């Protein structure tokens, strides 16, 4: 069943490419229908191989390091010409899940929700678009079991403790949603910085009886390093939501 869905989606993308040729989400160059980035942009990615503990999350993984080299690609997600970004990001997350042995036993993929107000302004939730692409790739259904019940201030410029406070009770189980208990979930977001957003969302799933909670993002800030890189994004600019990110290039 899941294989058929994946094949059907690939066929759809193949045909779509005749009319809307696939472009690299980084530089807009034309690329093959089943490619994610052009070789130059792919070369700007640094594979994330860190280890991060996030409260209420059993395991976390990410595809690449969130740094100044990749930030322009991520920022394109919020633009009207975001094109192939969601597909490319979902492919990255799938590879990260495979690398970490986290593809099995996922009952449901859950995108980090956006508030109704923000959704109205943007017209789409990028985490949901990525989660839906990933759903075709790994064969697990995608569901909005969480909702964001209040707007939160941008995380930027808040310390770690204040970030957690800012998000406290921001998420809730979707009304009428009774299928969390005993199931395994994979939370999805475009970027993870301190992990506060995943922790708050995962706490709601845990309160509602989730059996296992995984989380994955396309990009993650590096773990503390002994020597800072010039490509590092300053901690005061850390932001999980692409909307509030600072363009560095
Ligand atoms: Zn490119």
Bound molecules: zinc ion
Determine the N-to-C terminus distance.
43 Å
> Structural class per helix/strand content?
alpha/beta
Low-confidence segments, ≥5 residues, pLDDT <50?
none
Task: Give the H and E element order.
Answer: HHEHHEHHEHEEHE
Strand order, largest beta sheet: 1-6-5-2
- Overall mean confidence score, pLDDT: 85
Structure, described:
By secondary structure, this protein is an alpha/beta fold. It has a single domain, classed as Rossmann fold. Helices cover 33% and strands 14% of the residues. The chain contains 8 helices and 6 strands, in the order H-H-E-H-H-E-H-H-E-H-E-E-H-E. The strands form 2 sheets. It has a 4-stranded parallel β-sheet, with helices on both faces. The chain has a two-stranded antiparallel ribbon with strand order 3-4. Strand 5, helix 8 and strand 6 form a beta-alpha-beta unit. It is globular, with a radius of gyration of 17 Å. The mean pLDDT is 85. Zinc ion (ZN) binds next to helix 2.
Topology diagram in text:
Layout: H1 2-19, H2 39-42, E1 59-65, H3 71-75, H4 85-99, E2 108-111, H5 116-122, H6 126-138, E3 146-148, H7 160-167, E4 171-173, E5 184-192, H8 196-207, E6 212-220
Parallel strand pairs: 1-6, 2-5, 5-6
Antiparallel strand pairs: 3-4
Helix pairs in contact: 4-6, 7-8
The chain binds zinc ion.
Zinc ion binds at residues 24, 26-27, 29, 37-38, 40-41.
Question: Any descriptors?
Answer:
249 residues, alpha/beta, Rossmann fold, four-stranded parallel beta sheet, 33% helix, binds zinc ion
State the gist of this model.
With 249 residues, the protein is α/β, with parallel strands linked by helices.
């Amino acid at each position: 069943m899941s294989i058929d869905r994946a094949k059907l989606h690939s066929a759809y993308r193949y045909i779509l490419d005749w009319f809307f040729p696939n472009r690299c989400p980084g530089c807009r160059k034309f690329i093959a229908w089943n490619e994610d980035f052009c070789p130059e942009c792919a070369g700007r990615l640094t594979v994330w191989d860190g280890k991060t503990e996030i409260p209420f999350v059993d395991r976390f993984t990410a595809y690449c390091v969130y740094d100044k080299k990749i930030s322009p690609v991520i920022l394109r997600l919020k633009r009207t010409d975001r094109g192939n970004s969601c597909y490319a990001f979902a492919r990255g997350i799938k590879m990260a899940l495979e690398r970490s042995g986290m593809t099995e036993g996922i009952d449901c993929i859950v995108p980090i929700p956006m508030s109704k107000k923000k959704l109205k302004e943007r017209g789409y939730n990028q985490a949901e678009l990525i989660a839906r692409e990933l759903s075709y790739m790994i064969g697990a259904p995608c569901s909005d079991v969480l909702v964001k019940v209040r707007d939160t201030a941008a995380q930027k410029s808040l310390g770690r403790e204040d970030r957690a406070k800012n998000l406290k009770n921001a998420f809730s189980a979707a009304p009428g949603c009774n299928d969390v208990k005993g199931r395994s979930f994979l939370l999805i977001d475009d970027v993870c910085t301190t992990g506060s957003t995943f922790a708050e969302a995962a706490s709601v799933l845990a309160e509602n009886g989730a059996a296992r909670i995984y989380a994955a993002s396309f990009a993650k800030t590096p773990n503390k390093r002994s020597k800072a890189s010039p490509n590092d994004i300053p901690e005061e600019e850390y932001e999980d939501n692409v909307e509030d990110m600072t363009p560095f290039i």
